[in-house]
Amino acid sequence: MKSDRITREQQHFDELAVRIGQAWWGHATPAGKERLKRRSSLIGEWLAEYSAPRVLEIGCGTGSLTAELLALDVDIRLIGCD
């Protein structure tokens, strides 16, 4: 069973991620959005070489990169965990 402290820490992080997550990781600025698209495109090009790639994204945060990857026209099976 989780301690109350661990539960409070998780709730605090979840609230921060919702409130300032995109700013925290820099994805909310025009340059950050461009970097995110560029990264997802590069990863998508690499994944396109594989047939139905399976990807585990560790440390996905709010899932910004996850969403960008899933939006690509790549037959990808992706799991994101944080």
Write the layout of secondary structure elements.
Elements: H1 4-24, H2 30-47, E1 54-58, H3 64-71, E2 77-81
Parallel strand pairs: 1-2
Helix pairs in contact: 2-3
What value does the Rg take, in angstroms? 15 Å
Low-confidence stretches: none
Class by SSE composition: alpha+beta
% residues in beta strands: 5-15%
What's the total number of strands?
Answer: 2
Oligomer: single chain
Strand order of the largest sheet: 1-2
Name the average pLDDT.
85
Q: Termini separation (Å)?
A: 20 Å
DSSP summary: helix tally: 3
List SSEs in N-to-C order: HHEHE
Helix content: 55-70%
Largest sheet: 2 strands, parallel
Describe the global form.
flat
Plain-language structure description:
The structure is a single chain. The protein has three helices and two strands. Helix 2 packs across helix 3. It starts with a helix and ends with a strand. It has helices at 4-24, 30-47, 64-71; strands at residues 54-58, 77-81. By secondary structure, it is an alpha+beta fold. A two-stranded parallel ribbon has the order 1-2. The chain is flat and about 45 Å long.
